[in-house]
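Holo model, NAP. Inputs:
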Amino acid sequence: MKGKVAVVTGSGRGIGREIAVYLAKQGANVVVNVKKRVEDGNETLAEVRKYSNGIMVQADVSTRAGARHIAEETQKEYGQCDILVNNAGLGIGMPFLDSDDRLIEKMVSTNYLSAIYCTQELTKIMPEGGSIIMMASLAGIRPMVSLSLYGSLKAAIIKLTEYLALEFKQKKIRVNSIAPSIVKTKMGESLIDYMHMTEDEYTSKHTLTGSIIYPEEIAKTVDFLVSSPNITGQTIVIDSGQSLIGDLTI
Ligand SMILES: NC(=O)c1ccc[n+]([C@@H]2O[C@H](COP(=O)([O-])OP(=O)(O)OC[C@H]3O[C@@H](n4cnc5c(N)ncnc54)[C@H](OP(=O)(O)O)[C@@H]3O)[C@@H](O)[C@H]2O)c1
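Output:
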């Protein structure tokens, strides 16, 4: 990891921040990204700089221009990108028929197009041996009530992972994804609220391990995937055993 350059989209808080700081602890130079909340990005950057080097790029990755801007800034600062973590996402529970066009477009662009744009732009400066990690979700594997848009877009991310692993064979770039159930972040907490449950009720009723997932476990898995030269095209499920219980009704 030492000296490698990692771009982590949506790293102003939550899972993205944890991944950015974890990779910095392993010696990577990290490009932190936020859409608008520059203060959040500066906080992550300050953490990153305790361990390694980093820069912060403000860009909306749900647009082509935003993805291109990150690639340009990364190239200017470091000349290349070895690791891309397509983490930015938007998790909103909503009955399918209640979703209006504005929400649909935002969900598609944030949860799916962002990964396409960033992968296209950043692979232009990714050398052989590069690694791409996508943040998928258990909702992309097992359907959950009221997550039809989010879950189907995460399913698309899982398929994109497989297609890109095949297509990037020539480039010697590996592509993998991680599919967690609820992780303790702002998004995870809002999903538990949406289920009208407390965290304890969720973990006791919906998990086998009886414990919530913390962002650090996701960050460690990113590190594991980046450092495993023969894993590609795979999706690692981290779900506290939730998918074995069968009750995924939220
Ligand atoms: N938490 C969970 O339970 C869970 C479970 C499964 C999968 N995931 C996935 O894990 C990833 C991270 O989730 P999280 O829980 O850390 O979410 P979070 O706490 O809501 O944080 C998401 C981050 O992404 C940023 N972001 C959103 N849209 C962006 C855009 N267009 N451009 C740049 N940054 C953008 C947000 O910045 P702003 O504040 O500026 O919008 C925020 O910093 C997502 O892909 C999510 O779908 C989460």
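The beta strands are 5-8, 29-34, 54-58, 83-86, 131-135, 174-180, 235-238. The mean pLDDT is 96.
Archived with the compound record.
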